[in-house]
Each structure stands twice: as structure tokens, then as C-alpha cells.
Amino acid sequence: MAGTLVKICGISTPQTLAAAVQAGASHVGFVHFPKSPRHLSLADAAGLRALVPAQVKAVLLLVNPSPDVLADAVREVHPDVVQFHGSETPDALARFRADTGLEAWRALAVRDAASLADAGTFRGAADRVLLDAPASALPGGNGTRFDWSLLSGWDAPLAWGLAGGLTPANVAEAIRLTGAPLVDTSSGLERSPGIKDVDKIAAFCKATRI
């Protein structure tokens, strides 16, 4: 699909950030979640965010942040988007958008067709939902995928993206099968936990345009 948006999540170095930008990523993601191997302090996330050019959106991933953590994160990092990757409610996201004027995304674990119905609860509250594989050790970034055939005939109630187990080898097929307007990858581009591979970043972005 031409024009598919690409989010490279879990960026942790200036070199991998530059690789994502050069490869044509539309979004780059920074993770602030201590249990993740991709965790960045707010100061480190802010340092990388300052290097993001205007044509690329900076996404900050948080998991069930307290009000104080959320406020600190927005103030220090100045993201374009906050991606909520826990059990945050539609009301919480709606309040966040109203208070900050920033985009709010919500990750949703897709286990079966019934899981997709949850997306509708975020219509008018989130700017986008990210359909991801069910959590295991971490809320995301586990390198596993859900059954993409569940999306056949799905009438999306709001903007959405596909996440979970995407790699340079399978992303073109994923886009073809699901029609995803945005694809989101993290562990599928790593050479070791938390460390992206610049060649895999380039290959992934190229594959989305095939």
C-alpha cells in the first residue's frame, strides 16, 4: 500500500534515530517504562527528541503513568504523540487530549475477533489505536504477532496501526493482508535487546513501499 506510515519504536541512540529518519519513517518512538530493555530516562528521551526533524513525529510510550509522571513526561520530552500501552481508559485519554492538545494513541491487545470491538470504545477519545499481540513479559515489544486474518472485513472505527512481530521479511505481506495505514515495529529490528540495527531499519522502511 502506497503511503503507509511507519513508526520505528524503541529508538535509543542518535545513530538509530538518524537511520530511521533517513529511511523515511513517519514516526519514531521512545520508551519510558523501566521494565523494558528499551527504557529511556525522560532526560535521555528529551535529548533524542530534540534531534527529531519537523517532518517526523516523536512518540513517547508510557504504561499506566501516574498523573505526575505523565505531566513530567510531557513537560520534559515535548512529544508530538503519547502512546498509552497499559490499561488506560477512554476517559483518561480524552482528558489528556483536552488538557495538552497532543495526540493520544492507545495500544490494544488482539486475542480474537471480540478484542477488536474494544477499539470502538476509543472513538472520539484516542487519535489512533495500535493493534498489537497480547502481552507476555512486557506490554509490547515482544516480537510476537496476532492472527492478521482477524482484520479481514473489519470496519475500523478510528485511525489505527498494526504492531506485533513485524520485521523486514513480513511487513509487506502484513500491509497487503490487512491494509494497515500505519505499521509499528520495535524488537523486529534489533540486533540485541534494546539496540536497533540500522540496516534492518532501512530494510523495513523499504519493504513498506514494495
UniProtKB/TrEMBL annotation:
EC number(s) recorded for this UniProt protein: 5.3.1.24
A Pfam family assignment: PRAI
Residue ranges occupied by any N-(5'phosphoribosyl) anthranilate isomerase (PRAI) domain in the UniProt entry: 6-206
InterPro entries linked to this entry: Aldolase_TIM, PRAI_dom, RibuloseP-bd_barrel, TrpF_fam
Known pathway: Amino-acid biosynthesis; L-tryptophan biosynthesis; L-tryptophan from chorismate: step 3/5
Keywords for the protein's UniProt record, in alphabetical order: Amino-acid biosynthesis, Aromatic amino acid biosynthesis, Isomerase, Tryptophan biosynthesis
Enzyme class, broadest EC rank: isomerase
GO molecular function: phosphoribosylanthranilate isomerase activity
Gene3D superfamilies: Aldolase class I
CDD domains: PRAI
HAMAP family (UniProt xref): PRAI
Family in the record: Belongs to the TrpF family.
Name of the protein in its database record: N-(5'-phosphoribosyl)anthranilate isomerase
Protein's organism: Erythrobacter fulvus
Lineage: Bacteria, Pseudomonadati, Pseudomonadota, Alphaproteobacteria, Sphingomonadales
